[in-house]
Specification:
The chain has about 375 residues and is of the alpha+beta class. Helix content is about 30%, strand content about 25%. The protein has a five-stranded antiparallel β-sheet with strand order 4-5-9-7-8, with helices on both faces. α6 runs antiparallel to α9.
């Protein structure tokens, strides 16, 4: 189907109204870095890349307002110049599909609820979105939240739209809380641990006075711990961590470039090949159980969020990944797969009937005509879960 690229909220309203009049569905798309997540579908593409640019940035108040189609890389470069950061560490999904990095937009990141390794201590994308402007499926512009940190009254729509994947609204403008970038960030590496011992070490570290900001197990085996802050504090906490984990082996402090590369791979799944890539969320104590059950099937497995997020690459679509996740009280998101598999296995973990019904009612409140319902997530009709 054709594509349109509005450059204002008013033009976006017109694009949605035109789609309703023409009887076609609309897919809101930024740079397209996540376009291959979900089933193949036919829809009119409405690109948000025309809605780009910084509206306001007040480093002293730690608040940034930016248009939704602004590239994520530009946003990160802007705040980095002020020694600040997006604390939830969003990333670009493009490399998961063999595409060059740089296509992701800040609106797409929020719409998909993307967060990296820092999410385990700094919070998720929804915790850092203060307010937004958007267009609903009714082709109406509305504003929610605000542009200061303490401004939430009534229902917090910012948390509702984060992770809604463009099924509720088309975002046009976002106000985000940013945080100071740590003066020093040290990564300690621990080798020789299997998934079970690695999870034990990560949980011990994250629950300690060492104030570890991230913990992950790289797909090639090393367990990583990040300690950030002022240099004297970092040195003292690294020493404390080494003492606390001495039974697991010696900790090695890595050079910054090597550490950044390892975190990028462990925290995004970008280094895992294979026809299919799954992202499994589970309680960290159950992660070893899930990893063990996947061991004979998966090509490679990585652990992030102290074991709370598992990346697994596989070639066989018959492996019951969802059943394995469900048995451990978790859920699984299918990120990458051949078209034939994507057409039959839902990308998102199937909801319980009551939750699915509630979600459908919420979507209808924002989009009564179903203009954003493209069939991407295969939940408008039954589809098998494994």
């Amino acid at each position: 189907m054709n594509q349109v690229q509005p450059d204002s909220a008013e033009q976006l309203c017109d694009a949605i109204a035109d789609a309703k009049r023409d009887g076609v569905r609309v897919e809101i798309r930024g740079g397209g870095s996540k376009a291959r997540i979900g089933a193949p579908r036919e829809a009119r593409i409405v690109r948000t890349t025309g809605l780009s640019g910084v509206v306001a940035y007040d480093p002293a108040e730690l608040v940034l307002t930016v248009r939704a189609g602004t590239p994520l890389a530009e946003v990160e470069a802007l705040v980095a110049a002020e020694r600040q950061m997006l604390a939830f560490e969003p990333f670009d999904h493009g490399p998961l599909f063999g595409a060059p990095a740089g296509a992701a937009t800040i609106g797409g990141v929020i719409a998909a609820g993307v967060a990296g390794s820092g999410r385990v201590t700094a919070g998720s994308a929804r915790d850092h979105l203060l307010g937004f402007t958007a267009v609903s499926g009714r082709s109406e512009v509305f504003v929610a939240g605000g542009k200061v940190v303490k401004n939430v009254t009534g229902f917090d729509l910012s948390k509702l739209v984060t992770g809604s994947w463009g099924r509720l609204v088309a975002l046009t403008e976002l106000t985000l809380k940013v945080l100071p970038r740590p003066r020093v960030s040290a990564t300690l590496r621990l080798d020789g641990l299997g998934p079970a011992a690695s999870c034990t070490a990560m949980m011990r570290a994250l629950g300690s006075h060492a104030e570890v900001s991230a913990a992950a197990r790289h797909p090639d085996g090393p367990t990583l711990f990040r300690v950030a802050g002022f240099e004297p504090s970092v040195v003292a906490r690294c020493a404390l961590l080494s003492q606390m984990l001495r039974e697991f082996g010696p900790l090695q402090r890595l050079e910054e470039d090597m550490a950044n590369a390892l975190w990028r791979q462990a925290g995004t799944g970008s280094d895992l090949d294979g026809a299919m890539l799954w992202c499994i969320h589970v309680g960290p104590r159950r992660a070893p159980e899930v990893a063990a059950r996947l061991a004979s099937h998966a090509r490679r497995v990585a652990l992030d969020w102290g074991g709370g997020r598992i990346w697994a690459s596989l070639d066989d679509p018959v492996v019951p990944v969802r059943s394995i996740a469900r048995a451990a009280g978790g859920e699984a998101l299918l990120l990458r797969a051949p078209d034939a598999v994507r057409a039959t296995i839902p990308a998102q973990h199937p909801r319980a009937p009551g939750v699915a019904a509630l979600e459908a009612r919420v979507r209808r409140a924002f989009d009564p005509d179903g203009v954003f319902e493209t069939g991407r997530f295969l939940d408008e009709e039954p589809a098998h879960a494994d």
